[in-house]
Amino acid sequence: MWTQESLGQLIREKMQDYLFVVVSNREPYSHIFNKGRVECHRGIGGVASALDPVMQVCHGTWVAQASGDADYKVVDKMGRVKVPPEKPFYTLKRVWLSKEEENGYYFGFSNEALWPLCHMAFQRPVFRKNDWEYYKIVNEKFSKAILDEIGDRKAFVWIQDYQLCLLPKFLKERAPNQLIIAHFWHIPWLGYESFRICPQKKEILEGLLASDLLGFHLRYHCDNFVDTVDREIESKIDRERFSIIRAEHETIIRPYPISVDFEGIHSTASLEEVEKIRQLFVQEFDLSGRRVLLGIDRLDYTKGIPERLKAIDFMFNQYPELKEKVVFLQIGQPTRLHIPIYKSLNDEINTLVEEINWKYSTRDWKPVIFSRHYVSLKEAEALYRLADVCIVSSLHDGMNLVAKEYISSCPDEKGMLVLSQFAGAAKELTDAVLVNPFDLEQFSKSIVSALIMPEEDRRKRMDKMKEIVRQNNIFRWAGKILSELLKLEFKE
Ligand code: GDG
Questions:
Q1: What's the rounded Cα separation, in Å, for the pair 336 and 86?
Q2: Which of 172, 248, 455, 480 is most buried per CB count within 10 Å?
Q3: Cα–Cα separations (whole angstroms), residue 108 to 4, 10, 48, 105, 168
Q4: With a 6 A CB cut-off, is 50 part of the ligand 1 pocket?
Q5: Ligand 1 atom nearest to 425, measured from its CA
Q6: Dist CA 481 CA 473 (whole Å)
Q7: Contact 45/26 with Cβ under 8 angstroms?
Q8: pLDDT for residue 48
Q9: Is 312 touching ligand 1 by the criterion CB < 6 Å?
Q10: How far apart are the first and last CA of the chain?
Q11: 238 and 330 part of one domain
């Protein structure tokens, strides 16, 4: 089984002569002013959560966009700071973007074009020429920051996600013999029929194909990608090696289902400190003696939060005996609020919460509690531990780490996962109660069946899922990707 130690050993033995650089848009830690003091927050979102424990053993450099208002306060003149603050293990190098760059590259092309293009959530992508121009400028900016950091050394560069499609190409053009590049695509790849509407499809594919290794969560996404390339650009597809050869450069395509640090989460979740936080939440939200349904999400329309609220509404309507006995607690940090659809999602959620609470609440019970407050990792673990059922209802999701964090945190004596069949995690966690979030009635009934599941059945299913996440943990994900990279040789 892959562990933090075995990953560390691989890195010490095989990679110590090289620099190791991870690149993502979102930073793993941001520094924020709070009442005149600088606080350090863990970045929300799957990429940051997944890679932080990996970087803690790799000790490399993580290059990402600065996002906190106090970020500039703590860095050296190269934009670097050691993180995590309590026990610095690796270097975070920050890239500063102007407002125009962030608008065009991040809110515009990344999140109004590529994000809806790759998710089957029926949100129409918007392609603006100007956004694309900024997308190119920012990918260039990242490439300069990385090359400045690397100097004339050899490096493994591991790029994350859809915001940085052009980066492999820019890097390889400037330092062809110095770098081995992997790119991991964290969201689904739908297939040719969807992708072909993108006006910049050729540039995007060419950018990605400059990588030496390109990873997706699922085999299905790999197949969709290869099919897209096959129909869109001139290249040779080697079905045996599962690779694409273009202009004498080979890109290996592989599925690597991402995961979480099962052992780390499992052991901290049972600490006395987390138990105390759990008790405080029980008091704060008045949960004593009630069954708790929980959702923790970045507030994104792909996560199916309105659908979840509608299913809760339907549940109280159909099963009035659950009133006063069950509470639905939703934790959600707003993201991408400059994009109109995220703003209206926020308003829609507020309206639904208000309506449900108005319809069913009694003098001392409110069916839905919705908190937008930032929660730390330990607080998230405390919440997972108090939940009788965790609900993940994505309309479409590459993987979904909340499902795996919940399985890792859960005490033996309680817990069940309700999981959308459209999240990548559903391919592994088949013992969850699988739902179609578009089917209100089935979704609602499934929540009830998770709540009343006989103990023996519940425990059996949870034990199986825990074993799956324990084995297929984040160190296995990283270990497999790095082992594949190590088979490649630097050009002389
Ligand atoms: C992409 C893909 C894929 C959420 N709210 C808060 C908070 N979180 C943390 C959770 C979890 C992470 O954010 C969300 O994980 P997801 O898997 O849902 O990630 P996405 O951001 O959609 O990211 C996804 C992932 O990449 C990894 O490949 O699984 O399919 O879309 O860790 O705990 N954390 C804190 N406060 C919150 O309010 N602190």
A1: 29
A2: 172
A3: 37, 39, 21, 6, 21
A4: yes
A5: 29
A6: 13
A7: yes
A8: 87
A9: no
A10: 35
A11: no
Q: Is 397 in the pocket of ligand 1 (CB under 6 A)?
A: yes
Tell me how far the alpha carbon of residue 375 lies from the centroid of ligand 1, in angstroms. Answer: 12
333 lines ligand 1 (CB under 6 A): yes
Residue 78 inside a domain? The answer is yes
Interval between CA 177 and ligand 1 midpoint (Å)? 35
Ligand 1 center from residue 49 Cα (angstroms): 7
Nearest CA residue ID for atom 13, ligand 1: 45
- Residue 369's alpha-carbon distances to 64, 295, 329, in angstroms, are 34, 10, 5
Are 24 and 142 in contact by the 8 Å Cβ rule? The answer is no
Mutate to test the pocket of ligand 1, among 25, 402, 474 (most ligand atoms within 8 A of CB): 402
pLDDT at residue 374, as a whole number: 84
Q: Which residues pair with 19 in a beta bridge?
A: 155
Q: Residues near 202 by Cβ (< 8 Å), separated by ≥ 6? A: 232, 233
Alpha carbon of 88 to ligand 1 centroid (Å): 23
| Whether the predicted pLDDT of 464 surpasses 80 | yes
**Do residues 268 and 358 both lie within one domain?**
yes
The answer on 127 and 28 residing in a single domain is yes
Which atom belonging to ligand 1 lies closest to the Cα atom of 49? 32
Same domain, 284 and 138: no
- Residue 187 Cβ inside 6 Å of ligand 1? The answer reads yes
Q: Among 48-62, 86-100, 146-160, 434-448, which stretch is predicted with the lowest mean pLDDT?
A: 48-62
Q: What is the pLDDT of residues 8-32, one digit of tens each?
A: 999 989 998 999 999 999 999 999 9
The tens digit of pLDDT for each residue in 375-429 reads: 988 999 999 999 999 999 999 999 999 999 999 999 999 999 999 999 999 999 9
Q: 70 alpha carbon to ligand 1 midpoint, in Å? A: 23
Cα–Cα distances in Å, from 29 out to 44, 70, 236? Answer: 9, 11, 41
Please tell me the total number of residues recorded for the chain in this structure: 492
284 CA → ligand 1 middle, Å: 24
Instruction: Check whether 334 has a pLDDT greater than 90.
Output: no
| Range(s) of the domain holding residue 443 | 262-470
For residues 385 and 86, what is the distance between their CA atoms, to the nearest angstrom? 24
Signed CA dihedral, 353, 358, 360, 361: sign only: positive
User: Average pLDDT in the 321-349 region?
Assistant: 94
Q: Given the structure tokens 């990679």, which residue do they identify?
A: 15
Structure tokens, 128 = 């603006």
Same domain, residue pair 283 and 428: yes
The per-residue pLDDT for 49 is: 83
The residue whose C-alpha atom lies closest to atom 33 belonging to ligand 1 is 402
Any domain includes 492: no
Å from CA of 116 to ligand 1 middle: 17
Domain count, the chain: 2
